[in-house]
Amino acid sequence: MSGIEFIPMGHSEKPPRAVWLAPLTVVLGSLMTLLPVVAVVPFLPPFGLMVLLGWRMVRGDSMRVWVPVLLGFFDDMVSGQPLGSAMLLWTLCVLAIDVLDTRLVWRDFWQDWLIASGAIGFCLIAGRLIASPFGSHVDTALLLQLVTSAALFPLIYRLCAWFDSDVRKH
Amino acid sequence: MAPPRNRRPGFSRRAQYGLFIGYVGAAAGALIGAVLLLLSTFNPPAFAAVRSVFAEVTTPVASGLDWVRRSLGSIPAGIGSYFAVHGENARLKKQIADDAIAVSRAQTLDQENRRLRALVKLRDVTTDAIVAARLVNSSSSSTRRFATLNAGSWQGVKRGQPVRDPTGLIGQVIETSPNSARVLLLVDPESIVPVRRSRDGLPAIASGRGDGLIDIRSASVASMGFRVGDAFVTSGTGGVFSPNIPVARVIRTQGDIAIAQPVANPDALDFALVQQTFLPEPTPTPSPSATASPQPAP
Question: What is the topology classification, in CATH, of domain B129-275?
Fold first, then answer.
């Protein structure tokens, strides 16, 4: 068979699997907190947010723009942050990326990485300010967590691109 | 990356309105998130019921993962003990012979002790453990320090009960659901425990720092200064934690504040013991104003 798929007249294309796989992988990313480790410092990168940003960068139309509200609600339920923090911060990040899309129209991986790192940093720092008292000594651990998350983001990006590989790219 | 395709979805009004309503929904969702955030900031246990529903589903999964971790962790020790078993056998035989004398002496002392205790009618204050369960996961990605206990209200766990292990205090139960409970660890930035110095009974307050250590502040007027190595145990003040549970040991001092290392490591423990609250909560006295004062007629 050649690589060209035959679609009869009047039939629409099969929807890409990103439609259901994207929310599912974000939920699985949030569930990484079920790892059987009782941590005394925050060390785990926010995988739910990273997968969400990965999908947003790899395939912008994989999720409706309001889906981060629901995904954030689930993340708040399992992450230990007060309810509403991921709902608010994740949605703000996605909306901000939508605005950036109209400004930086043509961009490559490096800019995607920079934007995602900025979004992760915003969510982590704002989450820390919301959840913990101002005087608590969590900032060193938070900085390490941020650097780890930014360094791991290309991996998540590749993973999302691999999940999305059922669609022919032009 | 090419420019996104969804900016203006053709000439279809329906598609354009759909996109617009999507953005309205996102903004409304963010607003709802902000409201919920304010509510949960000013009243932290507000959404405990919703959280407990999710905890009921996720805790069995976490318990399974915890079991896998423990099984894998015990493999190297198992192999090592297989090869060391001969040497160990010989060593133990020798030790039994050595211990026989000590055992007989201890038996005499035990009998004497029992007789003396019966004489003075001393009653042991036992703080019974309600349940022994495992801490299966924690909020590893958040700056707050919560852990999940895989026992809940069906096993008798109630809100406010202290959680400890044989070496020391771990934290306090703050939310319960039928089969799981949420434990606020000692090192959480919002955890506060009344303690006293084991050496001289100096009252102090142990509050979590968030980085795995504990701040100790003197609670008495005369700040006598802390020394490295001072051990602190719970004082029983406040009635939640029963007295004399080891809490922390000072590792350095900063002026009036001492920085201490918690005695119990929540990640290394086998079982966490949930204890009764030291003093039961006082029954609420009915306020006369609630029923006695009738509403003034308009």
Answer: Thrombin, subunit H (2.40.10)
Tens digit of each residue's pLDDT, chain B (298 residues): 555 555 667 788 888 888 889 999 999 999 999 999 999 888 888 888 888 899 999 999 999 999 998 888 888 888 888 888 888 888 999 999 888 888 888 888 888 888 887 776 655 444 578 888 999 999 999 999 999 999 999 999 999 899 988 888 999 999 999 999 999 999 999 999 999 998 888 899 999 998 889 999 988 776 667 888 889 999 888 888 888 899 999 999 888 889 999 998 888 877 899 988 887 666 666 655 544 444 444 4
Structural tokens at position A141: 């651990």
β-strands B180-185, B203-208 pairing: unpaired
CB within 8 Å of chain A, chain B residues 162-191: 185, 187, 189-190
Q: How far is B151 from chain A (nearest CA, A)?
A: 15
Residue A76 lies in a domain: yes
**Domain-embedded: residue A170:** no
Q: How far apart are CA B150 and CA B154, in angstroms?
A: 11
The shortest C-alpha distance from A93 to chain B (Å) reads: 10
Asked if this assembly's ipTM is beyond 0.90, the reply is no
Q: Which residues contact B148 (CB under 8 A, 6 or more apart)?
A: B55, B58, B59, B62, B135, B136, B137, B138, B180, B181, B182, B183
Predicted TM-score (pTM) of the model is 0.82
Q: Cβ of A66 and B25 within 8 Å?
A: yes
A34, A81, A124: best mutation site toward chain B, by most B Cβ within 10 Å? A34
Does the beta-carbon distance from B267 to A40 stay under 8 Å?
yes
- B chain contacts of residue A55, beta-carbon cutoff 8 Å: none
A50 lies in some domain: yes
Could you tell me if residue A13 is inside a domain? Answer: no
Question: Rounded to the nearest 5°, which phi and psi values hold at A27?
Answer: -60, -45
Looking at the complex, does the CB of residue B30 fall below 8 Å from at least one CB of chain A? yes
**Alpha-carbon span B28 to B30, nearest angstrom:** 5
Report the number of distinct structural domains present in chain A. Answer: 1
